[in-house]
Amino acid sequence: MLRKYSNSRSHSDNxxxxxxxxxxxxxxxxxxxxxxxxxxxxxxxxxAILASEIVKGxxxxxxxxxxxxxxxxxxxxxxxxxxxxxxxNTYLAHAIPLMLEMLCLIGVGVYGESFYSxxxxxxxxxxxxxxxxxxxxxxxxxxxxxxxxxxxxxxxITTDLGILFSMFTKKEFRQNKxxxxxxxxxxxxxxxxxxxxxxxxxTYSFLGFRVFYLVSVVLAVIIVYDLSKLKIKLFWHQRKxxxxxxxxxxxxVTIEKKGKSVA
Length: 263
Prior knowledge:
Layout: H1 11-36, H2 44-56, H3 59-85, H4 90-114, H5 120-144, H6 155-167, H7 171-174, H8 177-207, H9 211-262
């Protein structure tokens, strides 16, 4: 899921990354809505709120909402910075943003469980951290998939699905493998976002802030899955090298024996 970059990614790679990250985004968005009464996986509404606060001249709220938008933007910036500057180790470059996202969500969960007293300042601060985490995730998935995967909001995805399904009314488009794969990827993302949102909604009453721990577990699965694949790949590579070396030794011994028998 994380090892490959851009056009080298397969449809299966994008499905795996898209479903798991969409599931986590759905959980975070519903968790923040129920806990903070605000959405965290997209910022379309926040732009509208920013405009409204500017009209009202409420400087404090302007600063708060602007900081939320900036942190979502900064999350995407940090993710792509990691991808393009640490490209020598693709896995590490792609895993770092997810690790940062996990730290943010775990931090929100720990503070919420142990210290949160439901003040406005605390709510705004925790929302800011959550938006930064979602910016990290969205920036990473978009960057490494050549913008094929965006899992924190569904406006563009729903629009794309509408366009694709209208195209499928013509046989030539239905037979296009690339378009079919694109449609299936988007459907998986939408479905798992909804499943994640439902999971958070049903478990909120007894999990509370611990819902962010559950999201972190999903992100850990993404990180560990690719790490295990790398270790397996390294194991088989080393085994192949050892086998080749043994074959060379055996060939050398055979040649030596033949040389002695001729002598």
